[in-house]
Structure formats: structure tokens, C-alpha cells
Amino acid sequence: MGKCKYGFFFFAVLCFCVGSSQNIPDDFKRISDSLINSGPTTYAELDVVLRPSRKDTTLMRYFSDIAGEKKYYSGQAYALNQLGRRYRDISQFTTAINLHQNALEAATTGENLEFRVYSLNMLGVIYRRKDAINSALDYTQEALELAETVKNPSKGLKRSINVSLNGLGNIYQILGQYDFAIEQFQRSLELEADLGNKWGLAINHQNIGECYELQGDLDKALEGYRTSLAINEDINNEKGKVICKNSVANVYILQDRLDEAIDILEPALLASKEIGDKHITSGIHINLGAAYLKQKKLVKAEDNLKTGLSLAKQYNFPMNISMANSHLSGLSENRGQYKEAMEYYKMAKEFNEEIVNERNLRYVNDVISRYKTEKKNEEIEVLAKDYEIAKIKLRKNKTSLLIGGFGLLLLAGIFYILYRQYQLKNDKKLLTLEQSMLRSQMNPHFLFNSLNSIKLYIINNEKKNAVHYLNKFSKLIRKILEASSMKEIPLAEELETVELYMNIENIRFSNEINFTIAIDEDIDVHTIKIPSLILQPFLENALWHGLSPKEGEKNIDLHVSRGSNNFIDISITDNGVGRDAAEIIKESKVLKRKSVGIEITKERLANFARDYQNTFDVTIIDLFDKESNATGTRVVLHIPTV
After folding, report:
1. Same structural domain for residues 109 and 182?
2. DSSP characters over 350-383
3. How far apart are CA 129 and CA 34, in angstroms?
4. Residue 593 placed within a domain
5. Which residues are bridge partners to 619 per DSSP?
6. Is residue 576 part of a domain?
7. Structural domain contains residue 198
8. DSSP per residue over 532-571, as a string?
9. CA–CA gap between residue 447 and residue 269 (Å, rounded)
10. With left for phi above 0 and alpha for psi between -120 and 50, is residue 316 left, alpha or beta?
11. Residues 143 and 182 in one domain
């Protein structure tokens, strides 16, 4: 019903705009005719005339229509992009995308590179707001690459390059690559300073503040937000001021400066409603709810959280939905309504996992489909070359033997193409199964970050690293898929799989991890069967909780030995900070990494042991030196072999 309602609204606006052209002021008609006759082609030339009217959708629709009729495509692209921005600001993303796509078509038809880049950037911004990261990255990269083809770019193109850099920074930020994001934002800051664009400076300082907040550095985050706020106040940008104030208040909530946060948020809420940006309004309501919840003002907290949740659901803001449900879970727990608290918690977790899994699947599809497309193109190229050779030979020798040979070659080519089509269909079916198994067998954080690392290598044109990393990653995925179809596998294959996993993780740890596998002489790893994919969760735990916060040498040792009474012992030992320190570090983080992989593995081991009419045991041992200082953790799996 929601889509129909907005579609009807947009149709009504169109009809009103088209049917009411006679109500367009004569002054604006004269301005439009003058622009069409003079035909300026740059954004700056058009904006200096139309800037006072660009937020008026009726006037922009009129100018777009008349420019299109007169085939003045630069003017049409300008007007359609302004309309798209207006609809984006009130969260009507589908309508905004259609308008920017039409602007891109107009700019392409009119061969106006500046407006092509501008339209691509605007599409990237909307898809980023919709959490469609892959599409956002494609549009933003295309815009930047197109703009950089010009040796001496105009001022308008330079601004578009800054928008692209800012967009890439935002995408890196969403992907959790905060250092890369800050690097892009700072590069954009320098270019914005050269252009004297205060609005661009404000946006980049705001984004840098967000990265520091996500890294847990709240002081630097506040510095970025306050700098951005000062610039926005200087240029009197109402929307920018509201965004900055909401961000400052969010940091105050994290610092338990609740009264200060509420004093900022309440007037900011009124301002956001006047602006009409539902995404900002939803976020402010949720922050107010969080502040009141910490103050134990549960009625006010509930009102704001439910209002923010309602807006997030209405306009489809998945991250806001997850945050609101998470806070409502805490509110219900405060009231002793534990069943309701659990329901809200489940909804928050469901939306959070949905966002992560959706991004993972998009990246899987993108990497694999592009790889297969390249292979297919290469094969077609080879076939085309073979066909040309055959044609040349046929021209030289028109004997029946060569004609017959050409016929056989052509027939073989047809059979080969049919065979390749059959293979590709099977590969497509297999890919669908692979994606399903990936979601159930591999930790989403590992999959997401590994694919992101490949994407970063590709973006930074590090082809050798990308191919090397992709080869290792694809081999690991293949082994996981093979193992996931079997209830149990030889221990040798499991060890090979975890070694691959550790190699990939070690790339992301800058090769700081020393990983060794030791097997006692009386162990035949090829005959011992164990459940597939049971060691990776314990290695991941050692990496992220034991070794990640540790300075200096980082070791993980895996040892396979003969246990008692037909058991084998697999021990995983790390020299990390220990469980107590890891728990303290985890609690101090703003963003907490959660995993249920070990619990799932224990359940699978229990099922495996029952098949042998036996038991299993997982022992976690804290290691200490002589002075009782933590020196690491050892996990011992006691697994039956008969």
C-alpha cells in the first residue's frame, strides 16, 4: 500500500505541474527562455541564475519540460537533478532515483560530461542512503573515473571529484574501513579548501567525526562534529546544523552527559521536522529515547523510540529499525517485561543480520559474476580468433576438403558453445547453493571483510594482491562448500581448510600471526574422521579476542595428539591477553563483536559424539606465568574416533 500511495502522490504532483504551467510566473518564463536561447552548459552558469528557484519543484519541473522540448539537455539535466535532490531529502528514494536516471540520460544525450558526473554522484548518494553499498560504489567510482579523464577540469568538475571522494569515504566507513575512510575525507578536505567550499568542508569534518566515533575515539569525534557545526552555522545551513547537533548529542549519550544531550536534541527535533528529512527525524527520536532511557524516564523514552521506529519502518531505514528495537528491548527489561524485551531484541538482531547478510550476498554475486563474465569474454575472444583464422584459410584454399574442414570446425564451435551454455547453467545452479551454504557455514563478519579486502585491492588497482587474495579466498570457499555437504571429513582436510583460513586472516593482520600445526607421529590424519568446519570458530575467537588487542609477538599453535580410550585431543593455544582482559576490552568498546559460532560448534560435536555412542569435551584453560600474569588461552577438544 505504501508504494501505491507514494506513486499516486508523485503522479498527482506531475499532473499538477504539467497542468498548471499557465501559473508559472512570467519572470521565470522569461528567465527560462533566456537560458534556453543562450544555452550555458556548466552547472555554475545555470546555478547562478536558477539557484533562487531550484528548491521549487513546480518551477524545476516546468524548466525540465520546456528544456526537454527544446532539446536543451544541459538545462534539463540540471533541473531533473535538483528535483531528485528534493525528493531524496524527504526520503522518497524511488522517485529521486528515477529523476537522477533521467538526468543522466539527458546529460549523455547532450554529451555533457560535467552533468553526467553530477548525476552519477547523486545516484551514488541515494543508494548509499538505502544501504545498497555495491550500487553506491559502482556509481561513485564511475563518476570519479569519468571526471579524472579531463586533464584541466572546470570548477564544477572539481567539486564533483570532491563529492566522489566523499562518497568513497562514506562507503569505506560503512564497510568498517575507518582509516581508509578518513584518508578519503582528508583528501577531499584539502580540495574543498582550495575551492573555498565551506559546505564541503563541513560535510567532511562531520564524516571524519563519525569515523572516530565508530573507532571509539569520542574526543576526536567531538572535535570533528564541533568543527562541522561551526562551519554550518557560519553558512547558515539548517540541515547541516541539525545533523551535527544530533551527532554531538549521540557522543554525549555515550559519555553519560544526558542533560546536555537532551538540551541539544529537543530543539534539533523541531528543526528536523521543518526540514522534512525523515531519516534525520527518526534518528533524533531514537537518540532522545536512548537518553531518556538512561535517565529512567521510561514514558518519554518509549514515546520517542516508538516514534523513531515508526518513521524508520515507514521509510525503510534498516539501521534505525535495528537501533530502535535494541533500545526498546532495554526499556522493557527495565520494566521487568522480559518476554517483550526478548521480542524486541530478536527484531533488532534480525534486522542487523539482514543488513550484514544482504551486503555479503551482494558482494558474493558481484565478485563471482564479474570473474565469470571476464572468463566468458575471454572464451568468446578465443572463439572469434579461431573463426577468423578459419575464414582466412578458407579464402586461400577453396577446395572441398577445406570447406569440409571449415564445416567441421563450425560444427565443433557450435557444440562447444552449447556445452559452455550447459556448463554455465549448472554453474548458476551451483552458485545459488553456494550462497545458501556460505550463510550457514561461514561467519558473516569474516566473509564480509574478506570480500571487502578484495574490493579494496581492486579499487586501489593492486591487481596482483587482488588475484592472490581472491585465489586463496576462492579455494577456501570451495573447501567449505565441499565440507559442508558431508557430515564428517578426514582430519587432514579440516587442517588444510583452517590453514587457508588463517592465511587469509593473517593478510588482514599484516602477517603478524605465527600459526603452526603440530601432529604427533602416531596420528594418521587421513583416517581420523571429525565433523566438518569445527575448528575455525575457536581460531577466530583466539584471533579477535586474544591476539587482536595484544602488542608484540602473536602466536597460535594447533596440536593434534592421541588422547585416552580412542579419543584424540586437538588443542589451540594462543599467547593473547587472556579471557579476563579480553572481556574488559570488549565491554569498553562502543561497537561489540558478537559470535555464536562456538556454541553452534559444541552442539555439532554433541551430535557427532552421539553417533559414536560416546561423549565429547571442550576445555578452556587460562594460561599464567609465575607472577600470575595472563599469558594466553588454550582450548582442548576431546573428540571420539570410534
Report:
1. no
2. HHHHHHHHHHHHHHHHHHHHHHHHHHHHHHHHHH
3. 37
4. yes
5. 636
6. yes
7. yes
8. TT-SHHHHHHIIIIIITT--S-EEEEEEEEE-SSSEEEEE
9. 38
10. left
11. no
Look at residue 5 and tell me whether its pLDDT is greater than 50.
no
Number of domains in the chain: 3
Number of H helices, E strands in the chain: 25, 7
Whether residue 512 sits in one domain with residue 595: yes
Residue 399 phi, psi dihedral angles, 5° rounding: -70, 160
CA dihedral 509→510→512→513, nearest 10 degrees, is 50
CB distance 67 to 105 below 8 Å: no
Query: What's residue 441's pLDDT?
Result: 46
Read off the C-alpha cell for 227: 568543527
Grid coordinates representing 44?
555554475
Task: Say how far apart CA 262 and CA 138 lie, in whole Å.
Answer: 39
- Rounded to whole angstroms, how far apart are CA atoms 327 and 253? 13
Residue span of the structural domain in which 620 resides: 477-640
Helix (H) or strand (E) holding 154: none
Q: Mean pLDDT throughout 314-339? A: 89
> What predicted TM-score, i.e. pTM, was given to this entire model?
0.45
The conformation of residue 52, written as its DSSP 8-state character, comes to G
Highest mean pLDDT: which range of 70-79, 459-468, 504-513:
70-79
For residue 523, the Cα-to-chain-centroid distance in whole angstroms is 44
DSSP string, 387-441: HHHHHHHHHH--SHHHHHHHHHHHHHHHHHHHHHHHHHHHHHHHHHHHHHHHHHH
Residue 115, C-beta contacts closer than 8 angstroms, at least 6 positions apart: 43, 74, 77, 78, 81, 103, 106, 107
Both 540 and 603 in one domain: the answer is yes
Boundary residue ending a domain (254, 288, 305): 254
- Digit-coded pLDDT (tens) for 303-321: 999 999 999 889 888 888 8
- What are the backbone angles phi and psi of residue 260, rounded to the nearest 5°? -65, -40
Beta bridge partners of 636: 571, 619
Residues 98 and 199 in one domain: no
pLDDT in tens, 11-62: 344 444 444 445 889 999 999 999 999 999 998 899 999 999 988 999 999 9
Work out the pLDDT band at 368, boundaries 50, 70, 90. Answer: very low
- Say if CB 120 and CB 140 are below 8 A apart: yes
Domain stops at, among 133, 149, 165:
149
Which amino acid does the sequence have at 528? I
Through-space distance between the first and last CA atoms of the chain, rounded to whole angstroms = 60
Same-domain status, 81 and 204: no
pLDDT tens digit string along 188-226? 888 888 888 898 899 899 999 999 998 899 999 999 999
Side by side, the strands of the sheet bearing 617-624 are 513-519, 554-562, 567-574, 630-640, 617-624
Q: Is there a single domain that holds both residue 636 and residue 513?
A: yes
Where would I find the H helices in 130-217?
133-147, 155-174, 178-195, 198-215
| Those residues with Cβ within 8 angstroms of residue 561's Cβ, 6 or more apart along the chain or in another chain | 520, 523, 568, 569, 571
Q: What is the pLDDT of residues 595-611, one digit of tens each?
A: 545 666 666 666 666 65
In the three-class reduction of DSSP (H, G, I as helix; E, B as strand; rest coil), residue 117 is classed as helix
